[in-house]
Design a protein that fits this description.
Shape: globular
Low-confidence stretches: 487-502
Distance between the termini: 19 Å
Radius of gyration: 22 Å
Number of helices: 19
Helix content: over 70%
Structural class: mainly alpha
Oligomer: single chain
Amino acid sequence: MAALAKGGRTNTMGFVIRALGGIPFLFIGYRLYGVEDMGRFAAAFVIIEIFALICALGEKRGLAQRLTEGADEDGQRRVNLVFDGMLACLLVSILVAAALILFPRIMFPDGTNSDLDMWMIAAIPAFALTEILLAAQAYKHDIATTVRARAIVEPWTRSICAGVFFFIPAISEAGLAMAFLASIYAALATALWSFLRTYGLPKGWRPRPNYLLKMTSRSLPLVGADVIERGTRLLDVFLLGQATSSATVGIYFFAKEIASLPQKLKTSFEPILSPVITKNLKIGNMEAIAAQVRQVGFWIIALQLGVALALSIPGEAIMGLGGPAIVGGTGALAILLAAEVVASMAVVSESVLVYIARKRNLLMSVGIITLQGALTIAFIFLAEHLGLDEGYKAAGAALALFVALGVSSIIKSQVLKTLLKAPVSNWRWGLLWATGPAVVVGFLFTQFLPEWTELVFGIPVIFGTYMLVIWKRSFRPEDKVLFRKKVVETELSLDSSESESK
């Protein structure tokens, strides 16, 4: 639990830094390049991310298990295992890149901003390799590298390059694509540097075709789980890209990126949660796993709800950062933020199910994303039938995501509870106690103060009010270790002493 708290604390700070780096990219992109250019970029971006996850072969979570199984081996053996994963990743990346080059319309249903946009395909192997390298570092409980790569280097490189490239005539039209490509490779370089310092270069390593095939086939349920879990957050953008204009996709993408901020809090714990779970599975300590799920699940939903309230109440002011044309997506923003809160139980449950019920989890995930796709298409057609504008189509896509993620949380938490034979729920009534005062404070800001105060003062005051109440009403001593480093160390020492005496 101390390792979970330490990793979560480090990466939660990274979440704040990542948000500060990602928001300028949205502001630069929408203000300089325009809504339609951002819409075309978004359509390509979601495809790149999905295919990159396929190429990572589930190593984001599967690598921890492979390294745990080889725990009795020497350090050199672990380096070779990581390189096995990297080689398999590169081979799959070549095949995927070739397919996208042959069928570019998959990425660009509404055309490209520039001929150079095709170079975005080159981000696939870099993105996938970075996932593997960061998973290897997380196995060593090194979360700081994930923070540097994903929270500092990647978003800030993208934001800075997007602004600089706009003023370079030769690549200004492809500025978004080139900034994206630069940020992905900058993150890869950051992760690789830390990996080589931690593990070093392999010795005596050579490709093993039989092992690579076995590893790839074993990883398929993990690949499916990773792709579907992330795909539920991207399917709506993809379907809107096929059914609406690039401008609508651009507006929705702005709301989606803002709503993804609380969703990224889940990733604050995922890198450290996987090795902790696999080590408890190895000794069969199911009660400890259930306790970790309950604890991490509450940390996530508590923080996500606070961020969602702080971003949804002044929603119009936030959407206005992208320009007047973006404000119409405020309704979609509110629904998307709510969707991330209801999804918290599903994502924590899945972090265990991928190890103890891979195929069952995959079947559940397939069912959930199928439900989401069907609902999204149905809501889009319903809006067309009623003669509503494209803004309602975007809201329908957001509502479909909300329903699908809610169903996923209910089903997966119940299955996990049955398998672990212990409660796993992350809900506490204190969450409602904290929500009420935050809503009142937000109402006062939005109704009686200028819009700029909502952004500068309203967001931190709403979040601060929420955290103050939840700290007093719902946080138990074990919850507070997330924010108190000395308590973690003290309790860890006491726990160790008690274990030794027993």
